[in-house]
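Thread: "does anyone have the structure for this chain?"

Original post by V.I.:
We have the sequence but no experimental structure in hand. Need at least a predicted one for the grant figures.
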Amino acid sequence: MDIPLNGEGDGRVGSARDNSTGGTVSKLQLDDSDSSSLMSLVSTLIPVLIYTAVCLLIFWALRRRSLRVYSPRTILRDFFSHEQSTPLPKGWLDWVRPFWAVPDTEILNRSSLDAFLFLRYLKVISMICLVGCCITWPTLMAIHANGSGGLSQLDRITIGNVQDPRIFFAHAIIAWIFFGRPLVLWLHWLTNVCRGFILFTIYRECIYYINLRHAYLLSPYYSKRLSSRTVMFSCVPPKYQDAARLRKLFGDTVKNVWIPRDTSDLERLVNERDETALRLEKAEIRLIKMANKRRNKQLKAAAAAEPETVPSPPSSGGSERSDDAEKGYPYHESTALPDVNGSVAAQWIGASERPYHRPLANFFRRVDTIKWTRNRIKALTHQINKLRRGFLKGEGRRLPAAFVEFSSQADAERAYQTLAHNRPLHMSPRYIGIHPDEVVWSSVRMRWLERILRGFMMRAIITAAIVFWSFPSAIVGAISNIQFLAKLFPFLAWIAELPGPVTGIISGLVPALALSFLMAIVPWLLRGCARLAGIPSLSLIELFVQHAYFAFQVVQVFLVTTLTSAASGALAQVLQNPLSAKDLLADNLPKSSNFYISYILIQCLAVGAASLLRAFDVFRHHVIAKGFDNPPISYSCIAPVVLGFATVGLYCIYLVYKYNLLYVSNSSIDTRGLVYPRALMHLLVGLYLATICLIGLFALRSAYAPMVIMIGFLVFTALVHISLREAVSPLLYNIPRALALEMEELDGGPAVDYPQDDFLTDADITASYPDFFDHIDEDESPAHQVNGSRGVEGAGGLMASVSDWSANALANKLQTTAETWGLAGPISYASHWISPDPSIEPNFVLRWLHPGIFDDFSTLRRMIPGDLPDPTQTYPPDYARRAYWPPEMASPAPIIWIPRDPAGVSKQEVEHCRKVVGCSDEGAELNDKCRIEVEIEKAPFWVPRVLY
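Reply from O.Q.:
Generated one for you, tokens below.
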């Protein structure tokens, strides 16, 4: 290592002289000519655009022909009539305009509240990013581009290119405007506080959500559902695990009570029966294929041996005709073949060639799979029926949970909002709106102490996972600055010799893809943790995953990746001069925003195109739903260019999911819209991070006045957050009883059947008062009374009079002054926007500014059609006996579905299997190549949907 003893080449020598540019810690950085930010962006953008274009072309070509994949909601019988979407035209381009014209409210009425709010969330954050572009691009991007930092390419339009601390006042002002600066408007004698854009958007969306959710849940289509009228009580003490006692506790409004029992043994038997039936089905299909392949070979060999043979005699022809007729034989006819004794398949398959396996319980001795599974299903069915009869008689341990169905939704809400037990954690927590199919019975079996311990353990595991997940995320962040690491570590020197596009792919596309795949694993792990923690329903599990996954996103995608990306770019300089760490971080932290452009391109364009293509569905005919929740607000003032990519990408995601929710996917889990307010609160976390980042950057640049301004905004955001939670939190999860009276006024009759026996009229209340005041003298003559004993007697009344007079005088003076200056017209016009008339028809701006007036309960209630079907008509006759029982108590044996074949093997196998389990070969057929062709509409396992 050569050390210049004479100071030659050392930039620090002479650094204190006039006009010197070397040696200061702010200049100890790599020459920015080495910046590859633009190459990284191009190297990411081009592959993503090519992949997106290919996906769109395939979708464009297959959309018309593969309706089962790209528009199943228009053809499948599993959907009710009001859930089926109107088919789009089948042309190449004529479907675009009709699709564009479909309003989002169609998804609310045809899918679910969650689906509608998910689309609305995508639109909201797209609008936030678009407004952010309009605010920050004309100001901050121009300031950054003209900065004195000497940066180039994309780094030039980040805050790192600004060196003068005085310029950061612009960032603080823009942050207040975009994030949440309150502007006090004095108009006429009205004072109105207009919040900043993002904070006001969160506030108005909370108001909109509350009114829409109440209107949706109180609609007859939803309020009559069993889940809306049923409350689940967990941790029920043994004394209250009795239906009669619960009826006495909650009164005559109780309709049904389900107290489940421990059915672990029954569940094991049912699972074994289902697995055995599946093994039987596979063995039957294998046998049918083997027999038909042998038969086809024999027919081909016979045809090759006698090519000139005359047509078969009538008996043979009759056999062929019988084979042809087998494809449509009725099931009530006999399957016995007159010319075959024993198994039909035995004509081509020997006994040793039949499907077999070696069960562990049989000491691995070989058994015939078909015969063994039939006998096993028969034995399991007998044991299952015996256990079920015992549970119906009251045998078995009762679980510490109860499902109580009430006569109406109002009664259920009253019980849900009432404290049921005097001891802590007894009959609590309680839940409403849980569908019978969503109950996680392994969690219901837990006692309160076990649930608490499991909850603590799972939260500790998730916290540890967030910490240890930082290591691969840190590697991803370091790879995004691979060109700096290549100069620092000799074993990576070969990377610097690669062509520019290859280096751009390594530093741009590869880290974004790696982080996307890394974060895609997390939700599956979190769902497993939620089950182990004792979360009692699938919808609550999704809420748990949403909350925990957001913590992963904040720590891994933002904090760890940002810090490691910045640190890897400044590591060499910090090692050479540790005192320069502060300035180097200030220079390199903004550059890490370039990584998020690549990440947004991957998440929005690539993932959106894959969701639209649905390649897995093309081959598997299986519907998969995905989510996206990553608003890039934190870099809005540091690198405003991120907002542009986010706007386009998020709107593309919105269009993709609008199509999928309208024509493809169905919401299988219903959270009753609770994911939306959590997502809105997550936006506030983005504001906190953005504010803290600006505070840190201002501190690193020694811009203390802007730093104080942003600290004030941080406090202001926290106060708004606290106030917002206190104001709207009770309304997010409960249905106010006052809405019953409002619905009665809107409908002209009682809409919610609250009991009237406990209510007293005003006349009854007046008549019930005793004559307390009959003895009071009613002399109305004036009398002087002493109101005080001190010299300030009457001062309070005088001050009130003076205050009222002063306020009126000031208001009159302001009005006169405004008229004198010609401001009466502008003030009147502004008053129209500040306090509009509720009776007028609002435009978009008025509706957006005043959600409490123009998006109130009565307005949003009209979005839900009144002609939706009655959900109770879909209930089976015995729902009261088995609705909230564990599924193993009533689940029927699975139906075996095998293909019909020309050899007639399936005909005999169906008859034999039906003695122990349901079996059918209708709708499936074996073709000449021994491949199965299926008509999914004729599948024997279709069951009618029940709107629980």
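V.I.: this helps a lot. The radius of gyration is 36 Å.
O.Q.: and The longest strand covers residues 401-406.
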